Amino acid sequence: MSAAGLSLAGRTRRRLLADPLARASLAVLGLIALACLAGPALTGHAAERIAYDYPRTPPSLAVYPRPETIVPALERLALRMRVRAEDVAVADGTVRLTLASDRPIDERVLTFFSRSDLFGPAAVAARSADGRRLAVTAPVRETRFLLGTDALGRDLLTRILVGGRVSLALGLLATAVALLIGVAYGALAGYLGGAADAAMMRLVDILYALPFIVFVILLVVVFGRSVVLVFVAVGAVEWLDMARIVRGEALSIRRRDYVRAAEALGVSTGAILRRHVVPNALGPVVAYAALLVPKVILLESFLSFLGLGVQEPMTSWGVLIAEGARSIETSPWMLVAPAAVLVATLAALNLVGDRLRAALEPGAA
User: Does the keyword Transmembrane helix apply (predicted)?
Assistant: First the structure.
């Protein structure tokens, strides 16, 4: 089928798929979204699990624990059990040692092994007659931290993927709210025109004049910190630009012949907006919506960086970047890793929005 016979959506899709930059950006976005959805189940770490033995572990492909750290870890574990670790040997992923004490050893202290991040449940291989020596075996828990751990020992890769779910969800939901409110408000104002248009747009100007950060702080004081608060704060502001864009389109569409014909036939205002004004204004709306998603994600990250957004135990890219900024001198990977994912996502979204806007132009090839 020729390009002339395609609908607006069909022509736009064909132009996007013919653009190498758009295809690459869409592929990056798809990989990031898929990783955030399915990745946390594949990393082998729970997002909130604290590994006390691995705080601030740098990124590495190596398997932990490293051989030179096993004996010191066993000595620390024995100290907590108030015994001595002797005759330590490691082979085939299993550690064998003797626990010695001046008094009979209660086997219940072996639960310290299963509570450790390095070893699994311990088993007694032999026991002396007086109970002061126990021959113990325990499996070594092998693990990897591809992007390192944070200050508490939580796997950074898992937290980035889980945080991506929150950041992307907030970006998409807040953009959807901005679309619904902004399109409806702007289309109505532009179609009505006159005094109604002037009054509606003066309200938009007043809301523009409100300092956004002061508005968020007031919401925090009244309602406390939560994800819903971030959603409300962002959604309450970002629809203003959308309303102005749609209002400008509606002002030109209301003078078209097909709109005047509908008015002459007695079609209601709601039906004219739904059938004629909004569909014919969707081109710039879709392009702006694609550019609004990265803007909302960046805004959420900014609020979380200031401590006004997502709070523990939840996380987002903004929260992770804020934590990394506080530890940049000792643990730079805590800042670099989430910032790199955020930059890649924002760059891909902006490129898609820019190419989408070009594809929606009437004269585009």
Answer: yes
